[in-house]
Amino acid sequence: MQTRRSWLALFAAAAGSAVAAPLSESLRKRIAAFLETHRRPEGGYGWASDVIAHVTPTFGVVGSYRLLGLPVPDAAAVASFVRDNYPVPEIRRKDRPLWRLDFEQVQTLLWLGESIDSFRSLASTWKQPAEFTRQYELGGNPVFQHQAMAVRVRHLLGLSPSPDDDAWRVYFQARRRKNGTFNTTPAEDGSPGHVMNTLWGLLACECLGIELPPAPGLAEWVRGCQLPSGGFTYAPDAELGAVDDIAYTWCALQILDKLGAQPAQPEECGRWIDSLLTAEGGFQDRPGGEPNPLATFYALDSLRLLKREPRMPARPAARAPRSAIPRGADVFSIQVEAPGLGSPREAVLLAKTLNIHIWTAKNSPPGWIEEARRVAAAERVPVQFHIGDEEYGTYTAVEGHGCYSHLVDLVAPFENGAGKRMEKTKFPYPWSELRDTRIADLRKRGGRMIWQFLENEELTRILLDEAVEKGTYGAISTFHFGNENFLHSQPFLHRWYRRLPFVGLQDAHGVESWWWGDQLAGFTTLFIAREPTWEGWLEALDRNLVMSVRHDAITGWKTHFAGATPEMLRFLERRSASRRFWDGAGPGSRRPAASLVLLRPGMKFEAAAPETGLALRLRLWQDNTGAGIPRQPRTELVELTLDGKRVEPQLKESRNDRYYLYAFANEPGRHTAEARVRILDSGKVVTISTTWKEEETV
Predict the structure, then answer these.
(1) Angle at 527 between CA 525 and CA 533, to 5 degrees
(2) Which of 413, 493, 509, 645 is the most buried (most CB within 10 A)?
(3) Domain 330-575 sits in CATH 3.20.20.140
(4) Is residue 373 helix, strand or coil?
């Protein structure tokens, strides 16, 4: 590869101990003070909207300190955090690995002067691109960025280039376009490149020792990414989500510097970067956003490449709009994609005890929502049931980036319906078709699309930047069932803090709402409105008065927020004494110990409904898996009585369900059934009862 100097050495210079131009001491101190506001008790640094530390903002902070020419405070604690705290479950190092996170660990430790030998054993197994399930990407293309980061880690460890790299070389060479750019899909499909993937691809090729053929038009292609603002977007003449962004700008400047070229308008670029500096001393990703550590690193290094001293703008950078909390508003709860199968009566019970105001039922059969609404009205439980579907099998494609599923999750008002889903499954619908038909129809009906997940950062940026402008997606999911937090596995999502609402996504599985209790009790979405109606929910979404909260075993019984602004947290705190939305007193403090349901013939959605006579069905509180399957018991049955007489129910067990059942003949008069249930942790015995009246038949 023909370069002025080793590009890897060039990139290492970005981690140097000083900026390329002088920096005023007052501004240096202001930026450092901003960085320190992100320090967390774990020893690392976190995002402004997150209560715990994470490797990505820590990477940004440490890189920024190096560029400022300042030592990292308590560097030993930072290094210990980075080494020992991988932000997602360990299995993800093998299953669709997120190698960007591994790179940030290794690079941060090197910046701190620490050994990275402990990563050698793991990285030595990365001998080829990761397998990527076609269930998520129709072509099986792994995320390009992560493959490049794996190679960079191997290079930093001295494992690449080597004879073991053949599969890597084939992968990257296949994705280089004739003009020298790179993207996720193979170049043979004729699709365009992306400026971020071009940087990752060029870096990976140098790590692998690949001699790339000349691409004389590459510098001009990169120059063509510069917008009139002075910042860069991801490709020349791009239309879809084509905004100026500091990450795009940083990548473009890295490539141009490698090629010995300059932006067409370097002074305008410098002024644009300066305009992102906020009064706190941090840089935004783009105008109208919130300052954050990673954007600050990108901005400082971009200014180094431009040989420009950072300058405080005459006017503070414009921030994301702040919506005032309406007078007379309160805090309400919605569960997105909660269970839509099994017992409607138990769904109403869970909504009542867990303080759920809106329950959007996932992929429910015809009649289920109507029955849940009828039961809620009969029992005077203030919960509304609406639609919260995931349209499995629908894929959408953007040229060069792949064809992905899990991008059609929605909420819609029951009265209007969600509309007709796309007809074909496992079909590469162009994004424009999905947007202009399915999503447009949903919005007309008063529904909103919810962004579930997409590990392809480059494509996510395109689609969510468009969502900010056009409302294609109404919110971004964060907390998820199991121990997933999409803000941790895809930390780039923090870029849309205050631009798009953050919600929790139940994404319910299983056949009974009762066996989804751990998730329903563990995390929820809160919204601020005057009334807990669908209209109130939509207004809160549009005003970004929405946040997600998690407090369960996954968080160690500590409260984690996503998308919460300081104003919203203060508002919530003033109301926390009268309304709890999580188990602040510990495991199961709000959970019903059991559900006792009287079953009659013809109850369509109730398991074990008899053909004749009556039956009592008792489900006990147990932990559940992420597939909605009962596991560890939390309670035990002491006794079941019918009209004061003890009866012996039968235990019915299957893989997906577990309950006691007692069948009996119906007799005229008033009746009472009681179940005495012992809570195993405390030994406390509670009584669950139900009463009914049978009319005498003639």
Answers:
(1) 105
(2) 493
(3) yes
(4) helix
